[in-house]
């Protein structure tokens, strides 16, 4: 399969886990023009923010933030739709009304306050945590989890889908990594979704996304030591 124009990607490789970083793109590969865009390289001054976009203006908000030098990620997928009476495969957001931005909160605050046209763009808040003032903080996604999510959602496969917990019938609680095929490098848990074996990736507080069908021969269980590390995060 091809990759979508969301981000430049490379095939994943299995890397031994550390307490701080599960399998993801090796740092030495990130400047490679065939690898993940260098703009997504780890930066302690930036976080992955989840933004809510209303009125189906995700593409418009994405374009605007990029013009303001804010690095964004808008997961896309292709679907079949009838356009003027003809069935066409078109590109549209995978998760309606959500956009991801890799930047600092100060930069995002400035964008939102200084640009009335972005009144339809707001933070997606973390309702499981509370700030000293009693308010919920903006929801952020861990860098390693976001890279794993990007790796999955940048594959051009119409069978990738957002799922609910009720749709996922997990085989066990072990973490696995896909080692062959279009989803090589993706880390998640094996589940049966719509009657097929898939690997499910979770973004805490945001969503669950399932790969297309993945055969057992393409999946490797992550060693128990590293598995315990992932269970703790």
> How many helical elements?
4
What is the residue-mean pLDDT, rounded to a whole number? 82
Classify the secondary structure makeup into a structural class: alpha+beta
Q: Beta-sheet strand percentage?
A: 25-35%
- Number of separate strands: 14
Low-confidence stretches: 7-36
Which descriptor suits the 3D outline? globular
Report how far apart the termini are.
Answer: 31 Å
The run of helices and strands is: EHEEEEHEEHEEEEEEEH
Taking all Cα atoms into account, the compactness measure Rg is: 18 Å
Helix coverage percent: 10-25%
Instruction: Tell me the major beta sheet.
Output: 7 strands, antiparallel
In short:
17% of the residues lie in helices and 29% in strands. It has 233 residues and is of the alpha+beta class.
Notable characteristics:
alpha+beta, 233 residues, five-stranded antiparallel β-sheet, 14 strands
Structure write-up:
- The structure is a single chain.
- A hairpin with a 2-residue loop joins β11 and β12.
- The two termini are 31 Å apart.
- The relative contact order is 0.18.
- With 233 residues, the chain is an alpha+beta fold.
- Strands 8, 9, 10, 11, 12, 13 and 14 form a seven-stranded antiparallel β-sheet that branches.
- The protein is built from four helices and 14 strands.
């Amino acid at each position: 399969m091809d990759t979508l124009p969301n981000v430049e990607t490379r095939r994943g490789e299995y890397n031994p886990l550390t307490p701080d970083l599960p399998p993801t793109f090796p740092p030495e590969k990130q400047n490679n023009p065939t690898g993940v865009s260098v703009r997504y390289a780890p930066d302690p001054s930036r976080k992955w923010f989840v933004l809510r976009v209303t009125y189906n203006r995700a593409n418009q908000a994405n374009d605007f933030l990029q013009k303001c030098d804010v690095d964004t990620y808008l997961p896309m997928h292709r679907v079949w739709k009838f356009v003027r009476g003809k069935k066409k495969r078109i590109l549209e957001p995978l998760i309606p009304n959500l956009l991801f931005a890799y930047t600092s909160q100060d930069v995002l605050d400035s964008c939102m306050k200084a640009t009335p046209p972005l009144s339809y763009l707001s933070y997606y808040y973390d309702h499981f945590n509370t700030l000293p003032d009693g308010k919920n903080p903006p929801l952020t996604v861990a860098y390693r989890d976001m890279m794993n999510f990007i790796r999955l959602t940048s594959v051009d496969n119409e069978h990738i889908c957002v799922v609910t917990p009720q749709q996922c019938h997990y085989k066990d609680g072990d973490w696995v990594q896909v080692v062959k095929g279009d989803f090589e490098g993706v880390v998640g848990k094996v589940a049966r979704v719509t009657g097929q074996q898939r690997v499910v990736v979770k973004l805490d507080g945001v969503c669950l996304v399932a790969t297309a069908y993945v055969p057992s021969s393409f999946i490797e269980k992550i060693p128990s030591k590293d598995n315990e590390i992932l269970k703790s995060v």
